[in-house]
User: Fold this.
Amino acid sequence: MLAMNFRGPFRVRADRNMPEPRIEHPEDAIVKVLRSCICGSDLHLYHGLVPDTRTGSTFGHEFIGEVVEVGPSVQKLKVGDRVMVPFNIACGKCAFCKQELYGNCHESNPMATAVGGIFGYSHTAGGFQGGQAEYARVPYADVGPTVIPDWMDPDDAVLLTDVVPTGYQAAEMAGIQKGDTVVVFGAGPIGIMAAKCAWLFGAGRVIIIDELEYRLEFAAKYAQCEAYNFHSIGDPVVFIKTQTDSLGADVCIDAVGCEAKGNMMNTLLGMKLLLQGGSTTALHWAINSVKKSGIVSIVGVYGPIDALVPIGNVVNKGITIRANQAAVKRNLPKLIEHVRNGILNPKEIITHRIPMEEVADAYHIFSRKLDGCIKTVLIPPTA
Assistant:
């Protein structure tokens, strides 16, 4: 079948000779992929920053598909169902899944205990093949996949498998109170969605900070927020203090993660020498910009090894830090209603729809931030 094939950092190709998935467990399903996105966190893999990313891997943890085969134990899905597949692979039975912490499933990732299984996200996340392919194997098929409502546009549906739930949960974890000032670091798809969702929790002011003017312009329109380029405001921490009567923001959200720019030392340690789990520049800014007793919400992805953070400031300011992978399945019911009611219109952030045969070009465009790229969707020829 046709699938994306990782050949090494900055090298992927469309490969028509990748093996088709098969049922490996009675609870598996096989889906024919209809849409698959490239995520900002896929770029961490593409750039060679995630340990144990093996050649021959297929990325892709945001996808929807049509069920074409189910294992003998699958009860809730049938052939022909069109489903959203959450990026988390969750067993539904462990102690964490029972608490709806589907991103922390204790059974789906035999390679690590810190994170549950994730489609197409290296062997540190279980070694599962991803959905940037014509077909994908979906473990625990009765747990994660959700049937797409008949009225829903497939472009909206595919963004409900990661971008929208992660942005929403970033705002939810931030504990936003009515009238709060919320600062979002990062104007990628997740940051834009976090800024949009901050209003749903009662924010009184939403500020987004990035370095790419076209993304800031998009964020300002889509999320109705203030947008600033950190290259033009001086020290972002000082800037936020000047905007908040010197107190700091009530809430800061790190939607950047390990490839944050803006500090040479962090870039050198985290992205060039790989001596820490990524560049922590955005996290530094978040911790230092939030007010005393404020909340920092982290959805940016960092590597599994240690990283430098100003922990003394966290203690002395009494900051609460909340972080997690989004529990997609838990968030889906309310987000489906928000899409139905027109409160959220996820597909508006899609700027590029590219045939899967051109996956190498798609990664290049997204990685280099070319052509005004915000979000890329891959379309398989069989869709």
